[in-house]
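Q: My labmate handed me this sequence with no annotations at all. I'd like to see what the chain might look like in three dimensions before we decide whether it's worth expressing. Could you predict it?
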Amino acid sequence: MSTIKSVCFDLDGVYFTPESFQRFKKALSGNNSEDVIEHVFHKSDEILNFKKGLISENEYWDYVRKSLKISMPNEEIFQALRDAYEVNEEIVDLVKKVKEKGLQTCICSNNFETRIRELNSKFDFLKNFDVQIFSYKVGVAKPDKEIFQSLVDACGVNPDEIVFSDDSPEKLSGANELGIKTFVFEGVPSFINKLKELEVL
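A: Here is what I predict for the chain of 201 residues:
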């Protein structure tokens, strides 16, 4: 019998297709180089602070407009975000199967307020998750073990009763430190096989 009580899913690249964020970035890219786009959306202090809830939406999107030399107002940016994203239907079905098994479904995600709000308005996906841990709400980001401690506390179970998968191996270190069962997300078939090995499915 499985000892797993909570199954935690990542969002970008797992619940939402890997192509989704790429489409969004392309919609805002203007005439900028890949390096500039990469910096603005992945590496800048502004995006890292936005994902930790340390700066406001307006501050971050003002930074994006200035850095990319674009004039799109917030609502156009938010519309572009909604238009760019699609769910991975296989993962959506898997989340529902996990719930049907009586296990907790969880999110633990480095994310920012705009994306969660706008995508939930489109897909109404948050209702599928019993526990929702977002970096912008807890003020720390993966792989920091503090975000995973927030997950453990919210689930109300032991760390080794949680399984967590992420498409970025480097994001797993804090979870491993706490004793959460982890593996790298390498596609739906291998994800299902891992859950079967753990007797979740």
